[in-house]
């Protein structure tokens, strides 16, 4: 069983994150319709399980959304990009696929991002992160909305994360 290393929580920008039980989604906070679509598909694929298996994710159903989709593998205290849609890939200069969060981030932004991903993996929660002008820090000026959904639960922990990112048109 994969055990993620716990770190003391720092003061994170809690106003940018909403972690919620997938059975009780805050659709009023999900934002763009495409995020709702991904959540609805994920919910359909999971059936009566805590999360769908990775093999149950149907790329054909996600066709129009694939540019904003990514899949992360859960590693020992890290998360590695397995699949990265073209819009996400372009936004981050084609440097995500195959890399882990620890490869790409550092300091408080890394700690906060790991915390958000752990919420999804360990608590099997859907996690919505909005990094807007009002919540961006000097270390993380990217403006986006990110949805994280657990995939493939083994021993009460997700093995993968299905994610989607929305970027403002002007960004």
Helix/strand/pairing category: alpha+beta
What's the β-strand tally?
6
Largest sheet: 6 strands, antiparallel
CATH class: Alpha Beta
Terminal CA distance reads 40 Å
What fold name stands as the CATH topology? Beta-Lactamase
**Secondary-structure element order, N to C:** EHHEEHHHEEE
Overall 3D shape: globular
The CATH fourth-level homologous superfamily = PAS domain
Order of strands, widest sheet: 1-4-5-6-2-3
Architecture per CATH nomenclature, i.e. the level-2 architecture: 2-Layer Sandwich
Report the portion of residues in β strands. 25-35%
Averaged pLDDT, please? 84
Task: Describe the 3D structure.
This protein is of the alpha+beta class. The protein has one domain: PAS domain (Beta-Lactamase), CATH 3.30.450. The protein has 5 helices and 6 strands; from the N terminus they run βααββαααβββ. Strands 1-4-5-6-2-3 form a 6-stranded antiparallel sheet. Strand 2 and strand 3 form a beta hairpin. The longest helix is centred in the C-terminal third of the chain and has 17 residues, at 107-123. Residues 5-10 have low confidence and may be disordered.
């Amino acid at each position: 069983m994969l055990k993620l290393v716990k770190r003391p929580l720092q003061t994170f920008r809690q106003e940018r994150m909403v972690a919620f039980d997938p059975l009780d989604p805050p659709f009023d906070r999900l934002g763009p319709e495409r995020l709702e679509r991904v959540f609805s598909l994920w919910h359909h694929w999971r059936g009566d399980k805590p999360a769908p298996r990775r093999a149950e994710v149907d790329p054909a159903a996600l066709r129009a959304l694939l540019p904003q989709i990514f899949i992360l593998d859960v590693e020992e205290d890290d998360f590695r990009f397995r699949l990265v849609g073209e819009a996400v890939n372009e936004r981050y200069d084609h440097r995500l696929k195959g890399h882990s969060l620890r490869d790409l981030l550092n300091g408080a932004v890394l700690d906060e991002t790991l915390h958000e991903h752990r919420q999804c993996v360990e608590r099997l929660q859907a996690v919505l992160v909005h990094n807007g002008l009002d919540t961006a820090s000097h270390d993380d000026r990217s403006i986006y909305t990110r949805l994280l959904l657990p995939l493939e639960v083994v021993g009460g922990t997700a093995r993968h994360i299905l994610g989607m990112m929305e970027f403002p048109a002007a960004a």
